[in-house]
Amino acid sequence: MRWSPRAGLLSWLDGRLSEAQRQLPPEELGRYRVLIGATCLLLAMDVLFLVVPLGSQQQASPIQRVMGFGCLVGYLLVLLLVRWVRSLHLPSFILCSTLTASFVVTTLIVENPNSVSHAAGMLVPILSVYLLGARLGFVFTAVFIFNTAFFHQFYHSGFGQVRPLFADGFAWMKNAMAALCLLLAWSLSWLYSTAREESHAALERALKTLRENEGKLLSLIESTDDLVLALDLEGRLVTANHVARELFHQLRNRAVLTGGSLHELSPPEERWVLRERFAQAVTGQRLRTEVSLPVDGRIRTLEITFNPVWEGRRVVGMTVFGRDISERKEAEARLEEMHRSLLDVSRHAGMAEIATGVLHNVGNALNSVNVSADVVVQRVRGSRVVGLERAVELLRENGSSLGTFLTEDLRGRQLPAYLEALSAQLQQEREGVLEEMRRLSESVDHIKSVVSMQQKHARFSGVTERVEVPGLIDDALRLLAVSFDRLGIQLRREYCAQVPPVLVDRHKLLQILVNLVSNARHALLESGRQDKQLTLRVERAGEMLRIAVADNGVGIAPENVPRLFTQGFTTKTEGHGFGLHISALEAEEMGGALTCESGGPGQGATFRLELPLS
Known about the structure:
This is histidine kinase. InterPro entries: HATPase_C_sf (IPR036890), HATPase_dom (IPR003594), PAS (IPR000014), PAS-like_dom_sf (IPR035965), PAS_4 (IPR013656), Sig_transdc_His_kin-like_C (IPR004358). With 614 residues, the chain is α+β, with helices and mostly antiparallel strands. It has helices at 5-15, 19-22, 26-51, 62-84, 89-109, 123-132, 134-156, 162-165, 169-223, 242-252, 262-265, 268-282, 326-381, 385-397, 402-407, 410-459, 469-479, 506-527, 579-589; strands spanning 227-231, 237-240, 287-295, 298-311, 314-324, 464-467, 489-495, 502-505, 532-541, 544-551, 593-598, 605-612. The strands form three sheets. It has a five-stranded antiparallel β-sheet with strand order 2-1-5-4-3, sandwiched between helices. A five-stranded mixed β-sheet has the order 7-9-10-12-11, covered by helices on one side. β1 (227-231) and β2 form a beta hairpin. The longest helix has 56 residues, at 326-381. The chain is rod-shaped, with a radius of gyration of 58 Å.
């Protein structure tokens, strides 16, 4: 470090003090330094006063020597006391008393009338006010003023010789001006001391407030579980809380030091990320990033936020906050895995529900096939074809005398009428069998269409395509295998004249529609109403396509409406609570939303599915 005279002088002055005195506040330490410095200078002047005249022709008088040695003792006593006493009041009082006494005695000894106006007299008001305060300083200054203005001339005039006292008017005026200057010196010192004390008090209040705020801020920073750092513009560490220090110790196996670089303390694989974010934040941007750090054999993920510290319009530093989000990341991963599992379960549940409808529909068609087949078998068994065989056998037996058989034999005469009746009967049987075969063919075609439709929708699962919503709603109705007329449900379709197609996953949308229509059917059946009504409405609402499934069934209690789309909640005795929850999630995945409205129990319910048109 480069040596300077100021630092050397202060170091020398502090060397004259005890260790406890060197730890005093700056204001008190400054008074000790001034006291020692002034005493040493006065001591040097006193020694010079005693030594120099000894070698000259003019010798000092005995009184002057006694005064000089008295001052020497006083100054040395001050230097001894200042190191051992707890307060500088006594040494300061001795110094000011010695200085005042020596100056007054000198002016009385020396017959020079100008001695009272010597510049050295200014030291008394200045030092006394600074070291002892304004009141005691005024006492010493008053002694000086009295000596300068009155006592000096009164003493040299012979105590009572009035005329010589005012004989030299110019000297009297000069001494009065010197006394006035001494009073002015005390006043200026008092004003300076008062202003300095006020400034010091204000500074102390500001420092106290600053320390309190700093303590609160430090308490706040240390009480958080987040990493908190303060950096300068070069990326050097200014301060860090205990979380940051502990983390750096775990990463680098050493304590973090003020002035260390953040880039040096971070892992090599993450340095470029932090360096890039720091460079961007220095320009005034508030940035956030995530870094992964290997700590104690596991990867910890930190969310790092860079906050520029502004001074006016320029960035002067950086505050870095780091939050450990490892548990949140793990929870998000588990939630994502649970979500995928729930989607698989819901898809399987939806597939099972649709498959149940398909099987029910196929079963109904198979019943029709079975009935038609039984009717055909029964009609074939009861057919008059056997009678025709007997008639053919009679004609074969009488083939040689067929004319005589038909005209003379009783059986022959009845044969034409029998064949005519048999022909009519066979024709009727033929038409009945054809009708049953037609019904059988229709049932088989229905089975084929249901299976084909299920295959078509299952084939495009997970693929986004343009879907005509009204046609998909009709497919959902057919997949449910429900004859709404047979259940006494009036089905109303209210489709907008121009319904644009939507770009969605066909399988997801079909599953939502099947679930909504199935829930509406159950609500209507449980209501026991005679006027059961199910309304399917498709309309355009701005940039959204709105699909509404409304029923006048059992309705939903107001307290249950907000819980309808939560996982595991159901009002059905045999429900699993997956359907509406997964339907709402799939609606969100397609960029839409699924909502519900109900007037309460017995007031029905309306489910609305909104999907974006673009």
